[in-house]
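A favour, since you know our structure tokens better than I do. Just paste the record in under my message, thanks.
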Amino acid sequence: MPAIFVRSSSSSSSTFISTTDVFTNDDDIERIKRLQNGSDVSRVALEGEKGREVDLTPPAVEAIAESFGEWLIAKLRDDDDYKEKQGVDVVKVSLGKDPRVTGAKLSVAVFSGLARAGCLAFDMGLATTPACFMSTVFPHFSYHGSIMMTASHLPYTRNGLKFFTRRGGLTSLEVEEICDRAARKYANRQAKVSLTLINPPTKVNLMSAYANHLRDIIKERINHPTNYDTPLQGFQIIVNAGNGSGGFFTWDVLDKLGADTFGSLYLNPDGMFPNHIPNPEDKKAMALTRAAVLENSADLGIVFDTDVDRSGVVDNKGNPINGDKLIALMSSIVLKEHPETTIVTDARTSIGLSRFITNRGGKHCLYRVGYRNVIDKGVQLNEDDIETHLMMETSGHGALKENYFLDDGAYMVVKIIIEMVRMRLSGSSEGIGNLIEDLEDPVESVELRMDVISEPRYAKTKAVEVIDTFRRYVEEDKLEGWMLDSCGDCWVGEGCLVDLNENPTAIDAHMYRVKVLDNEQNEHGWVHLRQSVHNPNIAVNMQSSIPGGCRSMTEIFKDKFLFASGLDKVVDTSQIEQYVKEH
């Protein structure tokens, strides 16, 4: 019989809880493997979703946390890329969480799993994803690893885990390795978790240190000639935290720097998210923030997602700045500091954004969708001596080389606030929206979804077959004027799929981008097809620089690809057909 070894962070006592081995169950193994969501874990943790059962259970979370602890210990001991310069007596791991209602119950499972692995656990309580990583960096904490419990902008019924070491967030392949290990543990246990911690972990106030870190950056970089400690005096800034973890930015950062934050929205954490989805891409979130900015004549509005690894802003005229506009704004700021730097984005960005970056002397690298893919591409380019200071995805994930390549929504807003104050100090009366006035918007854009008609366990394989068939159709010129997009001189080939360097990045989801040409071989739009890592479906993104272009591309995609290939029997084409009908 195996035993759960619970180690106290505040005493040397230990507790053993007996469990019983059972034979491996293939269904149990697949159940745990399906919890993986790219570079993290995310599934249903609370009843309430129609047609979805709870699968992120305490036993599953305990097995995953234990496997992360074992994986981390092995890396610190054996892997030269991870190995510490000095021996590690006890591996320390922190846990933070967003305000979801399942957080308390699942936290016990995490601490139990870490104890089984022999790790010493620290409880950060309500936290943000970037702060979890910083707990491995700050001198007074310096944990070997960290876990953030969150499901980002997903409904209150969901929850999940994001993993960090001192090197940054884990890759999809590393999380797959951990989930494989956890699946075997889970399947071999009958009494799978103890819901009572005899020796609770040590509580730490990491968020106070993190907020102080952000305040220091703002003060030092603005270096205000008269108000060094309160450089935001005279600015009104609205924060919409969406009842997630972002409220701290108002009272622990902005207020203490002298800003007026009257009119801010939904700062108190509420794991049911009663007002709107905490998401800078959510139209309601942006509309409410816009209204608050205009009503209060504020200088800036800020929208955070639940765990604050993403953000969006609203300028002083009420213009929402997210997606391509946010990437353009950050590009404008970064290119002032680092002329000619490369900027990596996912391959759903517009032709206009590419022009915006290149017109300012930058280089635009279009890469695979997925924030971890985009960030890792930036890391790889820097390792290859290609200076790359900004990596951003249209979802609002943005990472900077100067900030540990960490996607941090609060840090990104800090950069924008610093630029806003510098503009005022230089005598400008314009808002930050003035920096992107020349960004060309696409005439049309649309995202459609095609559900894969299959049992869940086979859905990803079916999706890959559809996407590979699409690639062959384009390569064989069956879709006239459609051409696989190598994205120009950006070190990426075969439609943003395969790296040309000696060590290509492993594929976590299949996708291709195709540029669509007119009779004179001029590009007037693009189509991007990708396998979803969240759900059993395929996302179809399109943009066009001419009116009616998206409808035309959708009709060709439907008639000359889906129906011509017989794949209308493999995927649900209702959204595709509805779009053609309505437009």
Remarks:
- The first helix runs from residue 26 to 33.
- The chain has 15 helices and 26 strands.
- The CA atoms of residues 197 and 308 lie 29 Å apart.
- Confidence is low (pLDDT under 50) at residues 1-23, 488-498.
